[in-house]
């Protein structure tokens, strides 16, 4: 069920200065339509087939953001539908996006996904020391439009640790911004930690369970 009252309260908090990506993974087309009718246009999905199915069934002015780990063999499938790939995490993936985007004459917005939470093992994402290589890679790929970065907070209740990770994210974001004027989006914060992310400088939050309640 899409929680309309919660949605309105969250949008009021974000106050037009932080962009909401409504994470609709595992939720139905009807629920997304409810959110759409309230004015929501950016939705996040983490499975290729699910994104394609929903995009085909819903209005064309929805901006679909891919937020999950993206396998190279799924790029072609999602590319006609996505407006932003938030989970760019390797040179090889960037090169595949370039190839498939060029084939359909599309330029796609991408965010570099960084893994900053040391306590979380085996998660996907780039290490900060890989940033420069990725920036240089994207510079030579004309259909990959790098517009920012995404990261996740650590799985913990320790607000101080969450804050440290988000502050590290903001610092890295500022470093990336020195490289290009097009880098404007800092996507950090989910249902349980978005307040901390915004305090640290996030300007896009990805909220799912708080909006789409069971
Ligand atoms: C599921 C997911 C979210 C939303 O998480 P909630 O806790 O449901 O708000 C945000 N970002 C990514 C990458 C996700 O996979």
What features would you describe in this structure?
The structure is a single chain. This protein has helices spanning 4-14, 29-37, 48-57, 75-78, 91-103, 131-139, 159-177, 194-199; strands at 19-23, 42-45, 63-66, 82-88, 108-114, 144-151, 185-187, 204-207. The model has no long low-confidence stretch (mean pLDDT 97). Strand 2 (42-45), helix 3 (48-57) and strand 3 (63-66) form a beta-alpha-beta unit. The chain has a single domain (4-207), classed as Alanine racemase (TIM Barrel). 38% of the residues lie in helices and 20% in strands. The chain is an alpha/beta fold and 214 residues long. The longest helix is centred in the last third of the chain and has 19 residues, at 159-177. Bound molecules: pyridoxal-5'-phosphate. Pyridoxal-5'-phosphate binds at residues 23, 25, 46, 67-68, 190-192, 206-210.
Provide the CATH architecture: Alpha-Beta Barrel
Oligomer kind: single chain
N/C terminus separation: 6 Å
Radius of gyration: 16 Å
Biggest sheet overview: 8 strands, parallel
The residue ranges in which pLDDT falls below 50 over 5 or more consecutive positions are none
The distinct ligands, each listed once, are: pyridoxal-5'-phosphate
What's the layout of helices and strands?
Blueprint: H1 4-14, E1 19-23, H2 29-37, E2 42-45, H3 48-57, E3 63-66, H4 75-78, E4 82-88, H5 91-103, E5 108-114, H6 131-139, E6 144-151, H7 159-177, E7 185-187, H8 194-199, E8 204-207
Parallel strand pairs: 1-2, 1-8, 2-3, 3-4, 4-5, 5-6, 6-7
The chain binds pyridoxal-5'-phosphate.
């Amino acid at each position: 069920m899409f929680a309309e009252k919660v949605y309105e309260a969250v949008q009021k908090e974000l106050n037009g200065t932080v962009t909401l990506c409504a994470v609709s993974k595992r939720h139905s087309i009807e629920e997304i339509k409810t959110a759409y009718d309230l004015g929501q246009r950016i939705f996040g999905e983490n499975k290729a087939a699910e994104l394609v199915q929903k995009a085909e069934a819903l209005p064309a002015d929805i901006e679909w953001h891919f937020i999950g780990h993206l396998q190279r063999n799924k790029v072609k499938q999602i590319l006609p539908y996505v407006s932003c790939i938030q989970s760019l995490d390797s040179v090889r993936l960037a090169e595949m996006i370039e190839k498939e985007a060029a084939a359909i004459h599309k330029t796609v917005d991408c965010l570099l996904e960084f893994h900053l939470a040391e306590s979380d093992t085996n998660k996907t994402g780039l290490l900060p020391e890989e940033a420069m290589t990725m920036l240089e890679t994207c510079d030579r790929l004309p259909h990959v439009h790098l517009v920012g970065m995404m990261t996740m907070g650590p799985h913990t209740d320790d607000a101080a640790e969450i804050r440290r990770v988000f502050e590290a994210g903001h610092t890295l974001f500022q470093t990336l911004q020195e490289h290009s004027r097009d880098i404007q989006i800092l996507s950090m914060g989910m249902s349980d930690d978005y307040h901390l992310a915004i305090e640290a400088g996030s300007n896009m939050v990805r909220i799912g369970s708080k909006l789409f309640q069971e």
